[in-house]
TrEMBL record:
Protein name per its UniProtKB record: Delta(1)-pyrroline-2-carboxylate reductase
Alphabetized InterPro entries for the sequence: NAD(P)-bd_dom_sf (IPR036291), ODC_Mu_crystall (IPR003462), ODC_N (IPR023401)
PANTHER family membership: KETIMINE REDUCTASE MU-CRYSTALLIN
Domain of life: Bacteria
The species this protein was found in: Planotetraspora phitsanulokensis
GO cellular component terms attached to this protein's record: cytoplasm
Pfam families: OCD_Mu_crystall (PF02423)
Length: 318
């Protein structure tokens, strides 16, 4: 039997093969076709001497896949990335490898795609211009702003984007006509949160990054930075006020500190949580007089769905 080598798809090729909008559409299509995130295997962590392996497997009808990511905390002092890794896509029946993808680039594409899929029904209710505030200016913060622009292009204008960071001087390249970079804390931060239509939290903070009493009743908040039961970026007060969307209830109760601690503080109960599948499919229509909060843990099925879309586009181009 002849063995056919499978391709490696690096960061530049991933960006060329799938736009942010196409990644959002792939996530939505999977959920509308009946995929249930509750069926996804839990990720596992394996400690090694100098860090950790994060292993995320999943499967669907045609493909299976696994993301293997390394977390090396000491790499920050060497110039190497803290997070590195690979994604392997397999045929679901024969388990023959189909493609190898750069895992950080895949994650950077799929995470904001999942967020936009979860809240798109709310964002497209009106055509009024959006003011966006992003806590954090790393790949996920910038990726969420870019994906928001891609999804709403031709439908809703983004009038301003404000990045809130600890060291604004390190992010001057982000500044231009409609983009500002401001320091964490202070009156200006409070003002931009108060005026925001969308607030994105994409930080490594383990405690709330803003006062949720400032959030408008018609605002959308997306929190993606924390995925441990004892870390959170938003406070319990926001969850008490908001309609809380999660990828999967069991996963949120296991991994999402924003949810776990709010329940522990009696701000909400398990029954308060809404699955993104029910929102995307139209089973649940969200109210207009309360904030919407999407809390993402990041799940294995999301990498698989977007990897399938990328490899499909590669096959079409050959």
């Amino acid at each position: 039997m002849t063995y056919t080598p499978f391709p490696y798809i690096g960061p530049e090729q991933i960006a060329a093969l799938a736009s942010p909008r196409e990644a959002v559409e792939a996530v939505e299509a999977a959920l509308r076709a009946g995929f249930d995130p509750a069926d996804d295997p839990a990720r596992s962590h394996v400690d090694v001497r100098h860090g950790q392996f994060l292993i995320m497997p999943s499967e669907r009808a045609d493909s299976a896949g696994v993301k293997i990511v390394t977390v090396a905390p000491h790499n920050s002092g060497t110039g190497l990335p803290r997070i590195q890794g690979l994604y392997v896509l397999f045929d679901a029946v024969t388990l023959t490898p189909k493609a190898l993808l750069d895992a950080p680039a895949l994650t950077a594409l799929r995470t904001p795609a999942v967020s936009m899929a979860a809240v798109r029904p709310v964002l497209t209710r009106t055509t009024e211009p959006l003011n966006v505030v992003v806590f954090g200016a790393g790949p996920q913060g910038v990726g969420h702003a870019d994906t928001l622009k891609s999804v709403l292009y031709g439908t809703r204008e983004i009038s301003s984007v404000t990045y809130v960071v600890q060291r604004p001087e390190a992010h001057t390249a982000l500044r231009h006509a409609d983009v500002a970079v401001v320091a964490t804390g202070g009156r200006h931060t409070a003002n931009v949160v108060r005026d925001a239509d969308v607030v994105v939290c994409a930080t490594t903070s383990r405690r709330p990054v803003f006062d949720s009493s400032l959030v408008r009743d018609d605002a959308v908040v997306i929190a993606v930075g924390s995925h441990e039961p004892d870390a959170r970026e938003v406070d319990a007060g926001l969850l008490r006020r908001a309609q809380v969307i999660v990828e999967d209830v069991t996963t949120a109760l296991r991994e999402c500190g924003d949810v776990v601690m709010a329940i522990g503080e009696n701000a909400i109960t398990r029954e308060h949580l809404i699955t993104m599948r029910s929102v995307v499919s139209g089973e649940v229509e969200l109210a207009t007089d309360r904030p919407v909060l999407f809390k993402s843990a990041g799940m294995s099925w999301q990498d698989l769905v977007v990897a399938e879309a990328i490899v499909s586009r590669l096959d079409e181009s050959r």
